[in-house]
Design brief:
The chain is an alpha/beta fold. It is built from eight helices and 13 strands. Helix 2 crosses helix 3. This is Type 1 glutamine amidotransferase.
Length: 262
């Protein structure tokens, strides 16, 4: 994977508390974006719960990561939820390229007026096959992705519908997995394109008490996990096909698909 030594520069909005996971997520995003870690700045919301659009100055795009320590359903407990949603809406207004993963996906759903629910049992965990909608065939990131690609997905909360003004791109039977904001370079995934199988093993082991029912359950999930090279490649596509694309370029190629599989 080629690493660029100059622009672009991206800002990673992190929602992580432990230093180990902060560092791992930062390096994973850089790796799969095809960038040096020095090209990705960090805004950690636990450290900086209050902020405005000025945090985007000097950046060519925004990445939003996952979280096992916060919930978009509890803004009263996490004061950074509201300013984070305001920032996402601002990015849409100014057409700054955005890619949101997992927690970021749920944050975008709430920011755009959609609904997120919490699963107490039988939630998605592992590397499920991600199905594509017809609209994906016209999307800059997904048009050459095969249907049923594997991706890391571990979450207890999920969106029940695509927000108004957005197009569904990918899904599993229980879950909306990816959408794009119509007319803006803004993508989300419930799955983790920044996480591969080795990181899944490490992270799920670390947070096993959040997601599994003991060591036997954990081992069942890890043994069933697959490699996920296609989903990991989405971040490189985002950088090359959107962030580095000319204004009014490939991000506007979806036309007439806003109602597809809502």
């Amino acid at each position: 994977m080629t690493v660029r030594q100059v622009r672009p520069r991206l800002l990673l909005m992190q929602i992580r508390q432990t230093q180990q996971t902060r560092d791992e997520e930062w390096r994973s995003f850089a790796r799969f974006c095809g960038l040096a870690v020095s090209q990705i700045g960090i805004l950690n919301l636990f450290d900086t719960p209050e902020f405005g659009p000025d945090v985007l100055a000097g950046y060519d795009g925004l990445l939003v990561g996952g979280s096992s320590e916060a919930s978009v359903l509890e803004p009263e407990n996490y004061p950074f939820i509201e300013p984070a949603m305001v920032l996402l809406r601002h990015c849409i207004e100014v057409r700054l390229p955005v890619f949101c993963s997992c927690f970021g996906h749920q944050l975008a759903v709430r920011a755009l007026g959609g609904r997120v629910i919490r699963d107490q049992v039988d939630f998605e965990m592992g590397t499920p096959a991600i199905r594509l909608t017809e609209a994906a065939a016209q999307d800059p990131l997904y048009h050459d992705m095969p249907d049923g690609f594997a991706a890391v997905s571990v979450h207890r909360e999920r969106a029940t519908e695509v927000p108004d003004g957005c197009t569904l791109l990918a899904y599993t039977q229980p879950c909306i997995h990816a959408f794009k904001v119509d007319g803006a370079p803004f993508w989300t995934t419930q799955f983790h394109p920044e996480v591969d199988k080795p990181v899944l093993v490490e992270r799920l082991t670390q947070f096993a008490h959040h997601y599994t029912d003991g060591d036997e359950h954990l081992q069942q999930v890890l043994c069933a996990a697959q490699e996920t090279p296609l989903s990991n490649d989405l971040l490189r596509r985002f950088v090359e096909r959107v962030v580095l694309a000319p204004a009014n370029g490939p991000e506007d190629t979806i036309q007439g698909t806003a109602g597809a599989m809502r």
